[in-house]
Write a structure and sequence with these properties.
16 strands, 12 helices, alpha+beta, 5-stranded mixed sheet
Length: 535
C-alpha cells in the first residue's frame, strides 16, 4: 500500500483469496505528514493561521490542504477578547397605549455658536404615544432639573396627565438629586440607558438628527448666520409636530395629542421678509409706521410671530405682521460680515444679519419667553421706505449716562462720590490711569509674596480658566477717596458642570474656616489679634 500524496510505501501484505494479509506496517515520521485526526487538530490550524475564523478554515479543509482535519466548533478565549463586536440593536416599533405613559428625553450640545439668548444646549421631551415634542433652550446643562419639573407640572395642569415612565441617557444631569427626588415623589419610574450606549435611547437620538437636518436646511436657505440656530430649532419643532407621521398612520403628533387638526394657514417661510406694525409711541406722524424685519419663529406664549428687527437689534413679538414669503430678508438688507465662529457650519460667510454681541436671556419652547437685547446699531431709510443698512455706518458718540442717586442717600456724603468717582470696567480703561496702575502692581506683589500660584505648563487635557481685574474705589465717611483697590480674580463663570464645576479659584479663606479657628482659640483660652491686609 502506497501513500499517493508522498509516494512512500506504508504497508505490505500477501493475497489470500480475495483478501490481503498485512505483514509489515510502516508509518513515516516526516514533519509534512499530518497526524491522525483529533479533536485539537482544527484548533492547531486555527492558531497557525493567526486565529482566523471557521469560515476561512472550511474551504481549506474541504480541498484537503490541511490534511485529515474535521471541522468542529470550539471556543477561543483569545478571539473573544480581541474580536468581540458590539451587539446589534433591535428597532423598536412599539407605541404606548396612552399619552405620557412613556416620555423620552435627551440633551444636545455644546453648540459651536450661542443663540441670540446665549444658549448653547437644548433638551427634548418626546411623548411616546403621540410623538409630540417639546424643546427647551439652556445656557447650562444644570438647568435641566428645574426645566423638567416645570414641564411635568405643565402636563399635569394643562392636559390632566401624569408621566409614568421617564427614559433618558445615563448622564450626570439626569442623576441630579433634585430631579431624582421629584421623580420619586411623583411615583415616576426612571429608565436609564447603559453607560456609553446612547443607542438604547434611539428615539430621542433620531429626533436630534431630524431637528438638526431641518435647522441646517432653513439656515442655508434663508442665508441666516449661525446665531439664529435657536430660533430655527424652535420653528423646526413647531413644524415637526404638525407633519404627518408614518408611525402614527399619517396622522400628525398635534392631531394625535389634541384630537384636532392643526391650522396650517398660519405657517410662514423661515427667514422671509416681513413688515411689523410699530406701536403709536414708536414713530412720529411723518415717520414709517412699519419696519422691515426677518421672520424667525412663532410665539410660544402669544398668538404672534417672532421677527428680528435689524434697526433696534432685537426680536419683535407682534401679531400685526405682513409677510413677503416670496422674498428672503437677506435679499433686501445686507450687513457687514462679522465672523461669529472660526469655521461657519451652516451659513454663507458673505451674509450676516445680526450683530456679534452676546445677548442675555434664554429661549424656551412651550412655556418661556425670551429676554430681548438692547439697541446697538443705527440704520438709514431709503426713499421707498425700505430700511437699508449703510455698509460702513459712522461711529456715533453717545453722551455718558448720568445716574441719579436714590432719594434716601441725599443726606449722606456718598452723594458726591457716586457722581464723580468712576471705576473702570476693563483693563484697557484702567491701564491709562496711574492710580489704577499702582493698585494693580500692589495686588500682583501681594499675590507673589503669599505664593498664591505656581507657574507650570498647561496640561493638554485640562480646560484653562481665565482671569480678570476687578476695580473698586474705597472711600472714607466724608466721601473722599481712601485708596484704589484692584483684585485679580478667576473667571469661575466659564466653568461647566461635570467638567471643572467643583474646582474653586479664590485666594481667600471661607468664613466657616475662620469661625472654626476662633472657636478652637476660645476653647483653649488663646488670645487673638485683628489686623488689616492690603491684599
Amino acid at each position: 500500500m502506497q501513500d499517493p500524496r508522498i509516494g512512500q510505501l506504508i504497508r505490505t501484505g500477501r493475497k489470500i483469496g480475495r483478501l490481503y494479509e498485512l505483514i509489515e506496517l510502516h508509518i513515516p515520521h516526516e514533519s509534512n505528514i499530518c497526524a491522525a485526526t483529533t479533536q485539537s487538530s482544527i484548533q492547531l490550524w486555527h492558531h497557525r493561521l493567526a486565529h482566523c475564523s471557521i469560515g476561512k478554515l472550511r474551504p481549506l479543509v474541504s480541498k484537503g490542504y490541511l490534511g485529515f482535519v474535521t471541522i468542529k466548533s470550539f471556543d477561543c478565549t483569545t478571539c473573544q477578547s480581541a474580536k468581540q463586536p458590539a451587539l446589534s440593536f433591535h428597532k423598536s416599533t412599539s407605541i404606548s397605549a396612552s399619552p405620557f405613559d412613556l416620555v423620552h428625553s435627551d440633551i444636545w450640545g455644546t453648540a459651536p455658536t450661542p443663540t441670540m439668548g446665549g444658549a448653547r444646549y437644548f433638551v427634548l421631551f418626546i411623548d411616546d404615544y403621540s410623538r409630540f415634542t417639546w424643546i427647551y433652550m439652556m445656557k447650562n446643562r444644570h438647568e435641566l432639573p428645574q426645566i423638567y419639573i416645570n414641564f411635568a407640572k405643565m402636563i399635569q395642569t394643562q392636559l390632566s396627565k401624569v408621566i409614568k415612565v421617564f427614559r433618558q441617557d445615563n448622564v450626570m444631569e439626569y442623576r441630579d438629586s433634585k430631579l431624582l427626588s421629584f421623580l420619586s415623589e411623583q411615583g415616576i419610574l426612571s429608565e436609564f440607558s447603559c453607560p456609553y450606549t446612547s443607542q438604547q435611547n434611539s428615539r430621542a437620538e433620531r429626533k436630534h438628527r431630524h431637528i438638526l437636518d431641518l435647522v441646517r436646511a432653513m439656515l442655508i436657505s434663508a442665508s441666516c448666520p449661525e446665531r439664529a440656530w435657536g430660533e430655527a430649532a424652535l420653528t423646526t419643532i413647531h413644524i415637526i409636530n404638525r407633519l404627518p407621521s408614518s408611525v402614527l398612520g399619517n396622522v400628525s403628533p398635534f392631531e394625535r395629542l389634541y384630537s384636532t387638526t392643526p391650522d396650517y394657514k398660519l405657517l410662514k417661510v423661515f427667514g422671509c421678509a416681513c413688515f411689523v406694525l410699530l406701536q403709536p409711541h414708536g414713530y412720529s406722524k411723518l415717520e414709517p409706521r412699519a419696519c422691515l424685519c426677518c421672520f424667525l419663529s412663532y410665539g410660544t406664549e402669544h398668538n404672534s410671530y417672532r421677527c428680528w428687527d435689524p434697526i433696534s437689534q432685537r426680536i419683535r413679538i407682534y401679531h400685526h405682521v405682513v409677510f413677503w414669503e416670496h422674498i428672503m430678508f437677506s435679499s433686501l438688507s445686507k450687513f457687514k460680515f462679522i465672523t461669529s465662529t472660526s469655521t461657519p457650519l451652516f451659513t454663507d460667510p458673505d451674509v450676516d444679519l445680526f450683530s456679534s454681541d452676546t445677548y442675555a436671556g434664554s429661549e424656551t419652547y412651550a412655556g418661556s419667553s425670551s429676554e430681548l437685547p438692547t439697541p446697538s446699531d443705527v440704520q438709514s431709510t431709503s426713499n421707498d421706505g425700505v430700511p437699508i443698512v449703510d455698509p460702513e455706518p459712522p461711529t456715533i458718540e453717545l453722551p455718558p449716562k448720568v445716574r441719579n442717586p436714590p432719594p434716601y442717600l441725599r443726606d449722606y456724603h456718598c452723594y458726591s462720590t457716586m457722581l464723580h468717582h468712576h471705576e473702570p470696567q476693563s483693563y484697557k480703561e484702567a491701564s491709562t490711569d496711574p492710580h489704577w496702575q499702582q493698585a494693580m502692581q500692589e495686588e500682583l506683589q501681594a499675590l507673589e509674596k503669599t505664593h498664591t500660584w505656581d507657574l507650570v505648563d498647561p496640561p493638554s487635557y485640562k480646560t484653562l480658566v481665565g482671569c480678570k481685574w476687578v476695580y473698586k474705589i474705597k472711600t472714607l465717611s466724608d466721601g473722599s477717596i481712601e485708596h484704589y483697590k484692584a483684585r485679580l480674580v478667576a473667571k469661575g463663570f466659564t466653568q461647566e458642570y461635570g467638567i471643572d464645576y467643583e474646582e474653586t479659584f479664590a485666594p481667600v479663606a471661607r468664613i466657616n474656616s475662620v469661625r472654626t479657628l476662633l472657636t478652637i482659640a476660645a476653647r483653649i483660652y488663646m488670645s487673638g489679634k485683628q489686623s488689616m491686609s492690603t491684599s
